[in-house]
Specification:
The protein is mainly beta and 225 residues long. Helix content is 13%, strand content 41%. InterPro entries: ATP-NAD_kinase_N, ATP-NAD_kinase_PpnK-typ_C, NAD/diacylglycerol_kinase_sf, NADK.
Amino acid sequence: MSLNKSKNSKLLSTKEIVTSSDLLIAIGGDGTMLNCSRIYGSKDVPLLGINLGKLGFLSDIAPDDVTTSLVEVINGKYLTDNRFFLEASIKDDKESFIALNEIVIHSGSIAQMIEFEIYINDSFVYRQKADGVIINTPTGSTAYSLSGGGPIVHPEVEAITLLPMFPQSLSSSSLVVKDSSLIRLVLTQSGSPCQASFDSQDKINFRGKKEITISKSSSQLTLIH
């Protein structure tokens, strides 16, 4: 498909969009909002979502209400809703990743478990063998974590939830900690393949004994309603 451009049109880079925008309008479903949140929202550009998807937890303006809603926003009649991101990094790796909903650490294969230890603020919590673990924000509590039986957490609650995925245990439940907590996940099996997923969009693969640190990011998302 070709893109017709007028003589005066210009394709802006991400940096140019961030520095020149007072508001970004995301048209689509929650997947579109998640992508825009990480790319633009994490850089202090407020987001307004127009829902063309099914659920619309983040983008709550219906297509039929676009004109009315935009006029109200332009006239200053809107509400702001702040959400925090999670940030993760692998020890001895300079690159870091952020997620608005959840970070999922798993084997990357069906019916294959990983072994890991969880530390909160350097205090040992438990050792687990499971398909993986979901670490989510309150925003993500109505996403993948919910399908795994995790608790629904109000967006204003300052908390992070850890939910084991199909644990090999007779008693295992989700763990809710303060959002200021430093979470450290240590993979204990050498040579085992593993994958980290960020909002089910960005993914990294690694192998062997690794240490992953997860905490609240300094970046914050501002949603406009």
